[in-house]
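Two folds, back to back.
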Amino acid sequence: MSQIVVLGAGYSGIQAARVLARSAPEHLVTLVDRLPHHQLTTQFPATVTGRLTTGRAFIPLERIVPTNVRILRAEIESVSRSPFEIQTSLGAVPADWLAVCLGTTSSDLGVPGAREHALPLKSVQDCMRLRNCVRDLVSSRGLTRIVVVGGGYSGTEVAGELTDPQFATSTRGLEVTIVQPDNRLLPQGSSRLADAVQRILTKRGVRTLCGLWLSEVGAEGICLDTGEKLAADLVVWTASTRPTPVVKQTFEISPEGRIPVDPYLRPPNSERVYVAGDLAALQDLHGRLYPASAQIAVAQGTRIGQNIIAELAGKLPVEFKPRLLGEALTLGRHAAAAEVGGVLSTGRLAHAMKRAALFRYLAGFGSPALLRDYL
């Protein structure tokens, strides 16, 4: 019997653990995470305005992890590789195989004041803090000015939720600005989808500053690298992430802050180690890194689970070649943009596509109660 340890209960970790438990029940699978729940990060932006409750942004692990998987709720303190041993806050965990699915944490990129004055959106706790802050601001002020740093998936969806007509009319005035260091929104997505999102947000009155960066974040706003100052009552930080200290101590890290992996999702010069999710730096057929998205994480978690099972059976692993369904973003209660099968859509149809993606994910757990509680 081999001991297989999965680090992290995000999209890739949950999927890897489920594949291993289903296809290799004779082996001991341990899932290690500091949280007692799985975070539905694709739902986070909708909690900022209260369109969704934070209770619909996480699922208790016991509801989705097979009973033959040992769940260890503990902080991961260090990882030794020769031999494998994971040191946790509850003691050492030996391993014959290791699946690293830890995800990333928010990074302030060294911008002065960002850590003190900007609020990230990387956890359920962050969702609660942001929701409370937004609620307090719009109820106690006339005009509320919010700057969203980062124009990727999370940043654009947050801006969309804040400017949703139903929410905006409940305020006494709201100004939303996105600061994006790249030359367009959604740099990891298609340009057609980015243009559609840009049009929706512009129509809503969102100011988009692309190709600019911050020199400072203060208590009363931000300062751009051009010297321009923007007043802000709230700064939401979705701009960048970084690996956890444990990962940095154990693995080679790419300039993008991820672990370089081969097409099989294995880090260099490593045996019996696989990496999946936001941490995995793997290029697609066009030479671009696969984006950090739930869709990619689920597919990679499935692949590393299957590859570990293959190697245990004396077979060769298989390269990661995902069949991507497309992309969909919600920008409030009814507005959305999606590109599926090369076809661009907006409005209620795109909104339905995003909802369908959540349905497929939840249905995969085989529990009608999950669909009832989270859709």
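---
second:
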Amino acid sequence: MSSLTSSSPSAGGSPPPAADDPTSSLLTWLTASGCTSSVIFPSYLPHRTSLASSPIPSDAPILKVPFKCMICPPNCLRSPKDQLGITLKDMWVTGQLRGDTLLAFLISREVILGADSDFEPYIRFLREIEEPETIEVWEDEELEELKDEVIVKRSRLRLREQSGMHKRVLAQLSSHTPSLSLSPLTLDLHLWSWRILQSRAFGRRLPWTSLVPLADCLNHSNVCVRYKLEKDNEIVNPYEKYTHDPESGDFIMYPSKGNSYAEGEEVFNSYGRRSNSHLMLDYGFCLTDNEWESVTFVQRLYRPQEVTELYSKLKACLNRAGFNVVRNLKLNRTTFQKGLMFCRIVNLTEEEADELIKGGDGDGIEKCGTEKIECDVISKSNEVKALHAMLALLNTFDTSALEEDEKLLESEEVEGRLRAAIIYRTERMRIVKRAVDMCEEMLQRIERMESM
């Protein structure tokens, strides 16, 4: 690994940063602090990317960021001199503020400190780059383009939750230190800090949720990556002052499980197994062909006004198969058969239900006794009813615009939030259309068998 560099622009790419540009200032600060990296950032080819400056084999460091450059509670609150910092530290060590809530207010504090912040180059970089394009900042007409009422409701709920959190913490701060001026801690600043945290922070493998400069600039892909603090096993109590050997204890990121990068190849981080709705809410983008994307349908066994013996038997069969009478089917590449199994059970005749419950030698029914049942094909008539029921459920999701949207994505004129919205809804339509095609193909196969 070497010190940090940025590449020259390619034809059609963005111009390189000036010396006083926030990106250049950030890289200069990180280099002076001892950061080393095997990536060139930003590449301007033509978008902001991080390219491997040399081959990076699996388990070799991508980058090493000194601990002192990380925005996290022990760094921000080691020796605060301002009243806000002193108050936040006391609330941290006494457990009154923790986790993401604490970090959001620490980020806001660093913004308020301005030139007095130990992280000023990093904060200036974060403030002057584009704000995270999470859908919380989208206009109503832009949200409508997603064609998903659930994610829109979740976005609006998150705004209300953050407004409530902001009010609660301000009340805590005021109660703790009545003389503390709260006017700089505006709701707008808090929302910005929260979006920065949600879109850039590391936390799962660290003692504290942290912002890690440069590491947070890698784009996302579904690749294998791991990161750690060197000697983090020496940290006994994350609420105590962090002391470590300056030559170790720093943040290191590696490609793992065979993942590697050739020289000049874009280097990615992985934010985990994230559906597109999660990516849109927390990061402001979504992926084409996202293996973790799903579409949720509600499946249910309708309860008659007067409970019949058949209803009781169907409910028993569902329970034996591991289903509740109402369930969410998260349809993706692997859950189609589970959804179809539910449809088979709720369309059983009384005789078929009896046979399934006792685990007899019925047509296609496995012997199950008291074991959990696996409901494969039961009978031709049941399979037809189940497939039609599955189709009826799937057809509640409109896929009629799929072909038109796929053509729109081929156009370079469609960009920004509209492009993200079209990718989001197109991926959902593809999942449903794939399942519809499977149902129709299975029905056609049954028809061909009957005609033979």
